[in-house]
Design a protein that fits this description.
Blueprint (H helix, E strand, L loop, with lengths): L9 E4 L5 E2 L2 E2 L1 H13 L19 H15 L6 E3 L5 H13 L4 E4 L9 H14 L4 E5 L1 H4 L5 H7 L5 E6 L6 H9 L4 E4 L5 H6 L4 E4 L6 H12 L3 H17 L7 H9 L16 H13 L4
Parallel strand pairs: 1-9, 4-5, 5-6, 6-7, 7-8, 8-9
Antiparallel strand pairs: 2-3
Helix pairs in contact: 1-2, 3-4, 4-6, 6-7, 9-10, 10-12, 11-12
């Protein structure tokens, strides 16, 4: 099993999935990845929520991850979104990600089913037994309905290939509690751009970021400053980015980030149903925030 623990750090965009005419735009995806790495991005997450993974079929999921791995070519780690509310499906997706060379998988559970904490533990423990790839838990109660409790996380941290969490709770009490419960080797990745500064101050290792899709250099500089303990510099960048963080969620994600990416020529402003393109208000907020941040 790959030991990528120490490479999971810094600015890690939750990549959008470029589409054209209803199909995966492979050329745009390759260009996006090349640009991300050139701008200083520290890692990549394909097939997450921002990547519209819920509307990708299994062949498309595998292809997106495969392209990401090939384009990254070992320069940055690839953490493939591979979760499901079905344990069997999560296992199959994690195996597929491992087969095409992903360095780790990001795995969510709970949505719609609403399992108990024991059910959550069983889900991830079974996944870990069946796959030979590092697993990052994805805790996002706003989408998954259930919260992976600190106690359940502590139990899971004892399993060798479950190595950390993407925390999208926006609860800044969590990183300290999880660090104390899970140990110093537990990787703490924020999943919430607006609270990423506080998360890093409290011992986080990085952020799986929406905003990094369109401001990779600034997000990487912000994370580098945090990792170096230069929190005054980090705060200045954070304040510059905050209007952009807010603008990305004026409409249901990833509407505004795809619109913003289209303004940069990174992709077409196209989403898969039932997601809709950004509204006029969302477009205006995104454009204004990009101009304020110096991106346009």
């Amino acid at each position: 099993m790959r030991d990528v623990r120490n490479r999971l750090r810094g600015s890690i965009p939750a990549l959008i999935t470029p589409m054209k005419g209803g199909q995966l735009d492979e050329g745009a995806l390759r260009s996006l990845i090349a640009w991300q790495i050139a701008e200083g991005t520290h890692g990549l997450v394909p097939c997450g929520s921002t990547g519209e993974a819920a509307t990708l079929d299994e062949t498309e999921r595998r292809r997106v991850i495969e392209i990401c791995v090939k384009e990254a070519n070992g320069r940055v780690p690839v953490i493939a979104g591979a979760g499901s509310n079905s344990t069997a499906t999560a296992i199959a997706r994690a195996k597929a990600a491992a087969e095409v060379g992903a360095d780790a998988v990001l795995s969510v559970t709970g949505y719609y089913n609403k399992p108990s904490q024991e059910g959550i533990y069983h889900h991830f423990a079974t996944l870990a037994e069946e796959v030979d790839i590092p697993i990052i838990l994805y805790n996002i109660p706003s989408r998954a309905i259930v919260d992976i409790s600190v106690e359940t996380m502590a139990r899971l941290s004892k399993i060798e290939n479950i190595i950390g969490v993407k925390d999208a709770t926006a609860n800044l009490a969590r990183p300290t509690r999880e660090k104390l419960a899970c140990g110093k080797d537990w990787r703490l990745l924020s999943g919430d751009d607006p609270t990423a500064l506080g998360y890093m101050v409290l011992g986080g290792h990085g952020c799986v970021s929406v905003t990094a899709n369109i401001a990779p250099r600034l997000c990487a500089q912000f994370q580098d400053a945090c990792l170096q303990g230069a929190f005054e510099s980090a705060r200045e960048i954070h304040e510059r980015l905050m209007p952009l963080h807010d603008a990305m969620f004026v409409d249901p994600s990833p509407a505004c980030v795809k619109y913003a990416a289209s303004l940069l020529g990174l992709c077409h402003n196209e989403l898969r149903s039932p997601m809709m393109p950004a509204t006029e208000a969302g477009q205006g907020k995104a454009r204004d925030a990009m101009i304020a941040a110096g991106l346009l």
